[in-house]
Amino acid sequence: MKNFLSDTRDVIEQLYGPVIVQHFPNYGVFWSKFIGVRDDVEDRLVPYGLNLSNVPGENSEEIERCYQELCMAHYTLFCHLAGTHFQITQLENSTKLVDKKERYFRHWEAFELCYLHLGIVFNEIYHLWGLVFLMEKRGNVKRAENGRIYGSEKELGEYLNQIGQKGESLHKQIEKLREDVIILRNNITHFARGLHKLVPRGSGYAIPLKIIKNMLWVNKSKTTEWRLTDFKIKQDIENVETLLNNLHELLIQEFDYFRNQQKIGIRY
Q: Phi and psi dihedrals of 205, rounded to 5?
């Protein structure tokens, strides 16, 4: 078994691993237990692999496919977190620009990309859990003809609500955070760029503390409470990574339970 921070050979994980594991250490735990790297003759980066000798042939092919997709989705999740951190840096750097027009464009471009990345992070949460549930044949999760996983959002909620107070709390957190991110993404970045104010004395920007659906520019004059954009996105990425860490604790347990039940080994 390899150690994520010291052994990953992927350049994005090398760049942003130390940042992301501060609030999401279970990313590294999952990577070390289930993914890792091994070299073949072409020196490609590939997952550990599964030992499916104890699994009937009609099931082993689907489990192997789900496992490969699980590794891909896990990495995709990381890349979008890394993209968020990169865009936060771009947002902060934009406030130092002297040219007001350039500053304005770069600031809001970075802000929008932050929330586009975070929106995809939530898609990958459901994708990961859907793959584990599909391997377990839990509930109504299935793969459509085009390969997409369906049913995982509902099934994850039901699963979390069935495992006690901690699960119920996580379900509420994921719903609340996802709603906050989607509201920002849809209403500030897609619908109403320009719904902001310039921060006095500086070159930063602020958005309304409370965003309502399809909020018009005219509502700006009625807004009395504002929040700095950099403060908002930093708060959101920390909250999302903390939530992911707690969900991953359960994801690791669930995948381990499935492997043990099916006597599936990991080829380290």
A: -135, 160
